[in-house]
Amino acid sequence: MNWWHDLPADEPFGLDNLPYGVAEFPDGPRVVVRIADHALDIARLAEQAGMESGMVWESGSLNAFLDQGPEAWAAARAWLQDTLRGTERADCVAPHLHPLAGVAMRLPIEVADYVDFYASEHHATNVGRMFRPDSEPLTPNWKHLPIGYHGRSGTIVASGTEIVRPSGQRKPPESTAPVFGPSVRLDIEAELGFVVGGGTRLGQPVAMADAWQHIFGVVILNDWSARDIQAWEYVPLGPFLGKSFATSIGAWVTPMAALSEAKVPLPGQDPAPLRYLAGEAAYGLDIHYEVDWNGTIVSRPEYREMYWSPAQMVAHMTVNGATLRSGDIFGSGTISGPAKETRGCFLELTWSGQEPVTLADASTRTFLEDGDTITLRASAPGPNGTVIGLAECVGTIAPAR
Ligand SMILES: O=C(O)/C=C/C(=O)CC(=O)CC(=O)O
Ligand SMILES: [Ca+2]
Ligand SMILES: [Mg+2]
């Protein structure tokens, strides 16, 4: 027996999880798999085992592996679980395990396109009330289609990357003209990010029944948002510089195969969506989040509260014939539930800054201050009472430059 053979059921990165990442080794970056607090150098393990298909892991990103599609992902996972659960190949495994403390992780994906959705009814209602107090909080289209916008893939960064406070235009309520300067309403958005694998042909929509085949796995995603810049610029084309300065993702991608026990029905859709958005694939995921602000947990969003299913997001963003590419990432939108303590951004949690939160050191906050650190954590139920952890997503705010 080796230590990875009898990990406790509450180990978030046990053999039922096996998330993929990319580590910087002295001789170059390679794809690795996380087991508890170790990174397994699967490229070298596969090489030693004479496994040809392991060549895709000899890479600085997961993209080549993502390109191989669902059958290859399943085969790789089966081989890994078989190798790790058995004892006969333990001598081959052991030399390729590296303690995480000594391994630098990089952004695991060469990000292709990035879309961010708006799938929480509670978030959309709350934001509508604050941004558009004179209108209905939900726009007339909201329950007919999952609203999204195209974000900036080049500014998606790995967990741990410092976030420089953005500067831009904002228009203070009492002022008639905009002013320029560092954002004074810097916020987070706790989201689930979906990593796409396998491309599609231009003009070929993805049907609901096939949608999950294109989702390789998930990461925790933080869509940093400068609310003052956003509120002034977003009419009529939507979020732009208020969100494009940085989006953080966890360094390890948990494959969908690890989340089979997390499938849950959606809270309910009324009116029923159009046919291209309907079907059995329209389910949700039971993933519990924690929002940690400088060491204090200020919110516990629940992904199962989301109105739109990830499969509906895939069907919708391709229904016009737009392609998917390996390395695309789409965000769920802010995860907010009906209760105040389950809101996934500070705009909502502090009700636009009117209800400050108190941290453990007795200081209070409305929006982010320089030096603040946000850690997003998440976990889901796994098979046989185990826990599937998503890798944390951390960012610390640096002063505006
Ligand atoms: O309602 C608006 O004008 C915009 C709301 C958002 O902040 C958009 C967004 O990033 C979507 C989300 O995360 O749910
Ligand atoms: Ca967002
Ligand atoms: Mg962003």
TrEMBL record:
Residues 17-108 form the Fumarylacetoacetase N-terminal domain. SUPFAM superfamilies: FAH, Fumarylacetoacetate hydrolase, FAH, N-terminal domain. Its EC number is 3.7.1.2. Keywords: Calcium, Hydrolase, Magnesium, Metal-binding, Phenylalanine catabolism, Tyrosine catabolism. Its cofactor is Ca(2+); Mg(2+). InterPro entries: Fumarylacetoacetase, Fumarylacetoacetase-like_C, Fumarylacetoacetase_C_sf, Fumarylacetoacetase_N, Fumarylacetoacetase_N_sf. The keyword DNA-binding does not apply. Residues 115-379 form the Fumarylacetoacetase-like C-terminal domain. Pathway: Amino-acid degradation; L-phenylalanine degradation; acetoacetate and fumarate from L-phenylalanine: step 6/6. It comes from the Bacteria. This is fumarylacetoacetase. It comes from Nostocoides veronense.
